[in-house]
């Protein structure tokens, strides 16, 4: 069976690390197309190197464009490659422009699509990712949902066929790489960090970075917490901080500004911090897996179960400090994301389809 995987952004490298390795140990032959959406050493190369992700067979080098131009250019090149490769399936992950471009092209070429992380919904159509997810789910033939809530979201949209709740491949990734992170990462020493005495912050969603009032409120409120905040700055956030003249926060004594870190370093920061402040999807989930309080700078989240369980609070920047102070640790953390065998289940489903 031939599968062509289309990926291009940081969270997709993390997800693919476990799935591509499961493909490697099966009869599946994978071709990887890297769109180039994330392209530099810290946002891309380090993931391929640290996570044993097979090198892409094709690199499209498409980045730093508006949504239409980026998706359109990706589609053009993906179409040519899929016509040459003629895969049995196209595999896409999550909710980026690379996901959408791959799904649109594959569907027009009548190549079945498998969508890993299907069924996620924030119900906020102003989020570009929400559009990408909804369209991809409606085009996919195999919908690999991480949770039962995701399955229910698909059912609400009339999608029943091809849906499998396999667990979350990011859970697989944490279980696969946490041990290696503990053995090889020195990030705590590098920045003089003691466990449980720093917060970890990541922001990159346009709704937080592209509005001056919002971005400055976030940065200002990060300076008011009881511990310093380690802030690995996403390139989009860095550009916006500079463009908006907020550079003074990058040198603030309460904010430890660092470049984006590798996944192994991130696991060390997440598992040792006293709380996570984020607008990332994946980071909310990882905070939950490590049982760290999470404060999400958004009005809604697609990872609703973390909120229902009491570990994740949706918060406005000005309420950050009070919400952190009043946080009470839930007594339980149900295992929403499976037990680390999602990638294996995906392979078994595919092999089962081949034998149908
Ligand atoms: N991540 C990382 N280094 C960083 C920030 C995030 O390795 O400096 C990882 C994080 O652990 C998670 C993934 O990147 O696995 C999340 O990606 P991101 O926040 O960019 O995207 P989202 O999940 O919001 O789509």
Automatic annotation (TrEMBL):
Protein's UniProt keywords contain Isomerase: yes
UniProt-listed InterPro entries: UDP_GlcNAc_Epimerase_2_dom, WecB-like
GO molecular function: isomerase activity
Gene3D superfamilies: Glycogen Phosphorylase B (3.40.50.2000)
Keywords on record: Isomerase
Domain UDP-N-acetylglucosamine 2-epimerase: 24-350
A Pfam family matched in the record: Epimerase_2
Family indicated by similarity: Belongs to the UDP-N-acetylglucosamine 2-epimerase family.
Family matches, as PANTHER family: UDP-N-ACETYLGLUCOSAMINE 2-EPIMERASE (PTHR43174:SF1)
Protein name: UDP-N-acetyl glucosamine 2-epimerase
